[in-house]
Specification:
about 40% helix; Nucleotidyltransferase, domain 5; about 325 residues; 12 strands; alpha/beta; five-stranded mixed sheet; kinase; 2 domains; EC 2.7.1.2; globular; Glucokinase; transferase; ATP binding
Length: about 325
C-alpha cells in the first residue's frame, strides 16, 4: 500500500494542496480560495476542513506520513508559528503547527515559501537531486532559498537566503519594502523592472509610452521586438541579476543556481543575458562547476517542496 506526503502552498489568493508519493510522484492536487477576511481567522480552519474532505480515505488508512506547508511571513520553525504575513491578515504569531497536529494527528512541518520552493526544485525540478542548490524566485519581489549539503540554510535569526535584499550599486536607489534602498528586488523583480522602465521612458521615444499600464511582460515583449528602451531595461536588469548570481557562485560554489518565478518565464531572452554577466564575473574554478539554470516545476515547486520537507524532517527526526 502506497504512502504519501501532503504538501501545502499557502498563498494570499489561493491555497494549493498536493498528495505526493514518497518517490516524488504527484498523486492528487486541488486548491481552495484563501479567505483573508477577519484577519485571516478562517484560513487554517478552511485548510483542515478541505483536507478532511479530500483525503478522508487516506487519513482513515493512515497512509499520510506527514504534512508540510510553505507560507509567506516570518516562520518560527521551533514553535511552528508564522507572523508578519500581512497579505494573509496575520500580524501576530499564528500557531499553525499546533492546529494541524491537534486536528489531524500527523507530524507537521513549516517553512518560508521561497525556501519550500527551493526544496521542490532540488528534489523534483532543475536541481536534479543535487546537494548544493541556490534558488531565486522572481515575482513581485525576489525570494531566495539556499541548500548546502542537503540542508536549508536559515541562519541564526531565521532570515537566511534573503537574496532579494542584496545591496546593489546602481544609479536609481529605489526604496525597498524592507526599509532599505537599492535592494536587488527593487531592480530585477516584476515591479523593479517596471520601475526601471518608468525612470527612463518619459525622456525617451519608445513604444512603452503607448502603454497606459506597464508590466514586466510588456517590457520583455517589446524588447524582443527591438524597442531600444525596453531592451535597455532588460539588459540592465539582467546585468544586476547576473552580478548577484556571480557573487553567490563565488561565495558558495553550489552545483546549481536556479532562477524561477514569473519574470523568469521570459526564458532564454532573459537567461542568455543573465548567464553572460554571470560567467563574466565568476572565478575560473567556479565557472567550470556551478551551473545557472531555469526552474522547471513552475508553481508545483510550492507543493513538492513542502512534501520533501516532510521526507527530510521525518528522517532527521
Amino acid at each position: 500500500m502506497e504512502n504519501y506526503y501532503l504538501g501545502i502552498d499557502l498563498g494570499g489568493t489561493t491555497t494549493k494542496f498536493g498528495l505526493v508519493t514518497t518517490e516524488g510522484r504527484l498523486k492528487k492536487e486541488w486548491w481552495i480560495p484563501t479567505d483573508c477576511r477577519q484577519n485571516g481567522t478562517r484560513i487554517i480552519p478552511d485548510c483542515l476542513a478541505s483536507i478532511q474532505k479530500e483525503l478522508a480515505s487516506e487519513l482513515k488508512q493512515k497512509r499520510i506520513l506527514g504534512i508540510g506547508m510553505g507560507c509567506p511571513g516570518a516562520v518560527d520553525r521551533v514553535h511552528g508559528t508564522v507572523s508578519n504575513a500581512f497579505n494573509l491578515g496575520w500580524t501576530h504569531a499564528q500557531p499553525i503547527r499546533a492546529a494541524f497536529e491537534q486536528s489531524l494527528c500527523l507530524p507537521f512541518f513549516l517553512e518560508n515559501d521561497a525556501n519550500a520552493a527551493a526544496l521542490g526544485e532540488k528534489w523534483q525540478g532543475s536541481g536534479d537531486g543535487e546537494k548544493d542548490v541556490v534558488f531565486l524566485t522572481l515575482g513581485t519581489g525576489v525570494g531566495g532559498g539556499v541548500i548546502l549539503n542537503d540542508q536549508l540554510v536559515t541562519g541564526v535569526g531565521g532570515a537566511g537566503g534573503e537574496i532579494g535584499h542584496f545591496p546593489v550599486t546602481n544609479p536609481h536607489s529605489f526604496d525597498c519594502s524592507c526599509g532599505n534602498s537599492s535592494c536587488l528586488e527593487t531592480l530585477v523583480s516584476a515591479t523593479g523592472i517596471v520601475k526601471l522602465a518608468e525612470s527612463y521612458r518619459l525622456t525617451t521615444a519608445t513604444t512603452l509610452n503607448d502603454c497606459p499600464k506597464l508590466t514586466s511582460a510588456i517590457i520583455f515583449a517589446e524588447a524582443e521586438k527591438g524597442d531600444l528602451l525596453a531592451l535597455k531595461v532588460v539588459n540592465e536588469a539582467a546585468n544586476y541579476l547576473g552580478q548577484a548570481c556571480s557573487m553567490i557562485a563565488n561565495l558558495l560554489n553550489p552545483h546549481s543556481i536556479i532562477i524561477g518565478g514569473g519574470v523568469a518565464e521570459a526564458k532564454d531572452f532573459l537567461m542568455d543575458r543573465v548567464r553572460a554577466r554571470f560567467e563574466q564575473g565568476n572565478f575560473p574554478a567556479v565557472r567550470k562547476t556551478t551551473k545557472l539554470k531555469r526552474a522547471s516545476l513552475g508553481k508545483d515547486a510550492g507543493i513538492f517542496g513542502p512534501a520533501y520537507l516532510v521526507k527530510i524532517r521525518n528522517t532527521a527526526g
